[in-house]
Design brief:
Blueprint lengths: L1 H14 L15 H27 L6 E2 L5 E6 L13 E6 L1 E3 L4 E3 L1 H4 L2 E4 L7 H7 L7 E6 L20 E11 L8
Amino acid sequence: MRNFLCFLILIGCIGCEGPEPRKPVQRKSGSFFRQSVERNRKLLLAEEQKIKEIIEKDSLKHYMNSAAGSWYHYLVVNDTANYTPQPDDMVVMTYDILTLENDTIYSQEEIGNISYRVDKEELFQGLRDAVKLLKVNEKATFLFPSSLAYGYHGDNNKIGTNLPLKSTVSILQIEKSENSNEN
């Protein structure tokens, strides 16, 4: 009886411990994100090197580097205009999309004239930035790394993943919004 009583007390003491939390099976180390950042950094460097090689071969044109990270040269310059599109302005424009090897993905005829409200409608990032660099009746060719084009996702049609692009953009008309200030 004494052994039985000791046994019950022992069971009671052991059984009164709180539940022990389970330890995670796998710990997140953040290595996936570090690897992804490193992979994207290498991809951007390779694309920028390819763009720089294109610029070096095309020595007749003067390329400029935009603050957004694209490169461009003017085909038509309008020295009489001084206004560049601002957010909320309505712009009528044309553009095409090519690979860096000049293979046409979408022609200007296929896309047609586009009416675009600056920074309010969906265009790929590089094209949104390009529109804000041009004045009315100007035309320029832009070289975009894939991070400013359609990136990893592509356009779910003709543009694949991580594809740097070339685009010739023409601004046909700028309609200032009520909120725009003169440049």
